[in-house]
User: Which sequence fits this backbone?
């Protein structure tokens, strides 16, 4: 395998690596026919990111036919190749990526000005395939904005903030910090921003959903988008369904797929056992906390999604009872489960119980043709016990 | 502003008197060799040499020539004393060490000889501070016997490019390997860290390479912890010469320009790790 990146694209590649480091600790590298894929996933499998660099991104992209190679390596080591982005821009003329399968090494060679050659031989491990199953096109809500708009929005939230909630109506998007604990709500500082549809390049809302996802990972994407100036597209559906953030241009595509908090606090029970792609049973959302929650929201002065909006229009896939669109959030923990409950006819097989890897798409959505790839997990890295019963 | 608070008779008691209008011309260069607490000061007619050693296998020297000082008076051929370098630097920066234009600290350094403290008179904006630092029994600096006649390989590089390499060095590597050769890769810095190895190659034809004199291929490894402090000297220098002798002893010499554009030198010696086979 021989890939050569020249000029400004070296910095783009470096930026992508740094961006992926916000997601997980390992970088999965897979040279494909349609380009070089760099992926990362977090330990709880609730965030996944993939950058696909088309052959045209490279000044030379030579993959032996039939190469079925994928590996993973510590992302810190790849980051050290692209350590100083400012220097990359000024001094690196080209970056050559080569594979030495005999020695299990991936070599990054940076040809710099003044006759300086930097060679990094990084060891890797073979890895299984890592791909999230998601279908952007089936999402109810689609937006596209210049990265500046989103960066200016998230700058208002402290870097320590874990999650944000995004709520949309026909003409507006609200971004608010998410406070986990109901009791904390009265003590915490609540920040809410409202963006009008005209701040976006594209704003299409089919359902007035409100989703909550991890801000840190979102910032990871913005890091990349801002430096490349590419507009960010956002696709989401009902809460519990992942939000997909994308940047694309003619030679690259980056997708960040982040899990969203589900309304369904029974999700753990329904996830347990059986195939990962069974549809969820209808859930009960009317919890005792909801009234208290609504009361809290009613006292807020600013007109927001909590007060006015009518219930979302009924959708074929929308199984929830008509109700004001604020629901209690239950954080459903991400767990990898034991294979004890697997179908006895199948060979013992550990599967992801991922919040979004093929398990939470609305049953009627058009799945893209990617097969559900399962990961062989030899040891669960989750510390949480699975739900009893 | 030169200090004239001392009476003539007191001056005659000092074996060393050194005056500097700008104390930064001394403190900046001393910062470049601060890797240990204590330093040995050797004053001769040529000027001041300050030596710091580590583990008996690394030595850093800063040379400030006599003509850098506004006054440099020596009553004996050689005056040697040892002081705590950190304390000395704190005193030299006692007025805050700000780099505001026009605000410079004047220094008068005086030493009465063995058993006496080192006395510093520091003045800025009319305010005078007197510091007396206890001197210690000087340890004999190692003489590595590095002579130019024994030099096998020598290169002189512009500091700018080496600065980049040193700032990116993989710190998980215990050693820094330096290869110098009349053939490819000419001049190579290598690290062997947790995730793999990295090589920085400088071509002999590079415009950053001012001098390239390599007669034999030599590869030597040096402990990263011993060489890391040299990056401080590299940071303030404009050129660096890298030499190895037949024993693999490394000599790094840095050309430093002070605030007034005068030239000073900093030198690092480092012993190699055990003999290594060429990889």
Assistant:
């Amino acid at each position: 395998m021989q890939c050569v990146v020249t000029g400004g694209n070296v910095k783009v590649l470096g930026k992508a690596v740094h961006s992926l480091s916000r997601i997980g600790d390992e970088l999965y590298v897979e040279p494909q026919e349609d380009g070089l894929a760099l992926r990362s996933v977090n330990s709880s499998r609730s965030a996944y990111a993939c950058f696909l660099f088309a052959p045209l991104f490279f000044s030379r992209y030579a993959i032996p036919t039939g190469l079925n190679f994928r590996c993973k390596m510590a992302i810190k080591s790849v980051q050290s190749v692209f350590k100083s982005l400012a220097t990359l821009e000024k001094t690196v003329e080209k970056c050559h990526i080569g594979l030495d399968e005999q020695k299990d090494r991936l070599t990054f060679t940076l040809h710099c000005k003044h006759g300086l050659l930097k060679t990094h031989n990084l060891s890797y491990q073979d890895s299984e395939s890592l791909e999230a199953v998601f279908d952007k096109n089936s999402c109810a809500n689609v937006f596209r904005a210049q990265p500046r708009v989103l960066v200016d929005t998230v700058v208002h939230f402290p870097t320590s903030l874990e999650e944000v909630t995004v709520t949309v109506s026909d003409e507006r998007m609200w971004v608010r910090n998410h406070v986990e604990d109901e009791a904390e709500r009265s003590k915490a500082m609540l920040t809410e921003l409202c963006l009008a549809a005209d701040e976006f390049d594209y704003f299409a809302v089919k359902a007035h959903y409100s989703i909550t996802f991890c801000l840190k990972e979102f910032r990871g994407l913005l890091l990349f988008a801002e430096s490349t100036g590419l507009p960010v597209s956002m696709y989401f559906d009902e809460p519990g369904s992942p939000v997909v953030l994308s940047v694309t241009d003619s030679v690259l595509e980056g997708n960040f797929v982040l899990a969203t908090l589900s309304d369904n606090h029974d999700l753990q029970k329904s996830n347990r056992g059986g195939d990962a792609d069974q549809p969820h049973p209808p859930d009960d959302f009317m919890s005792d906390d909801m009234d208290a929650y609504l009361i809290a929201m009613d006292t807020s002065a600013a007109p927001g999604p909590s007060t006015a909006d009518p219930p979302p229009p009924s959708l074929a896939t929308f199984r929830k009872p008509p109700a004001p669109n604020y629901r209690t959030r239950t954080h459903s923990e991400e767990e990898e489960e034991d294979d004890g409950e697997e179908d006895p006819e199948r060979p013992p097989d550990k599967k992801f119980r991922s919040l979004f890897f093929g398990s939470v798409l609305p049953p009627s959505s058009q799945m893209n043709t990617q097969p559900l790839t399962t990961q062989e997990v030899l040891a669960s890295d989750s510390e949480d016990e699975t739900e009893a019963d | 502003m030169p200090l004239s608070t001392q009476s003539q008779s007191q001056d005659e008691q000092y074996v060393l008197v050194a005056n500097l209008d700008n104390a930064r011309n001394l403190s900046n260069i001393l910062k470049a060799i601060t890797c240990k607490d204590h330093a040995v000061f050797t004053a001769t007619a040529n000027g001041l040499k300050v030596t710091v050693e580590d583990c008996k296998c690394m030595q850093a020297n800063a040379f400030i020539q006599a003509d850098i000082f506004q006054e440099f008076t020596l009553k004996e051929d050689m005056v040697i004393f040892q002081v705590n370098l950190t304390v000395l630097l704190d005193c030299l920066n006692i007025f805050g060490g700000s780099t505001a234009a026009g605000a410079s600290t004047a220094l008068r350094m005086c030493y009465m000889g063995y058993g006496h403290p080192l006395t510093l008179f520091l003045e800025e904006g009319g305010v005078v501070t007197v510091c007396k630092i206890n001197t210690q029994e000087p340890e004999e600096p190692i003489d590595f016997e590095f002579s130019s006649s024994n030099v096998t390989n020598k290169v002189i590089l512009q500091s700018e490019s080496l600065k980049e390499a040193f700032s990116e060095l993989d710190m998980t590597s215990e050693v820094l390997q330096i290869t110098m050769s009349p053939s490819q890769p000419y001049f190579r810095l290598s690290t062997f860290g947790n995730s793999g190895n990295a090589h920085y190659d400088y071509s002999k034809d590079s415009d950053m390479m001012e001098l390239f004199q390599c007669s034999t291929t030599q590869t030597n490894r040096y402990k990263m912890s011993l060489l890391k402090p040299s990056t401080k000297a590299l940071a303030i220098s404009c050129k660096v010469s890298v030499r190895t002798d037949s024993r693999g002893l490394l000599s790094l010499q840095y050309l430093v320009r002070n605030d007034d554009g005068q030239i000073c030198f900093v030198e690092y010696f480092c012993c190699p790790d055990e003999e290594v086979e060429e990889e």
In short: The helical segments of chain B are 8-11, 24-31, 85-92, 159-168, 224-227, 230-236. Residues 151-270 of chain B form a domain with the Proliferating Cell Nuclear Antigen fold (CATH 3.70.10.10).
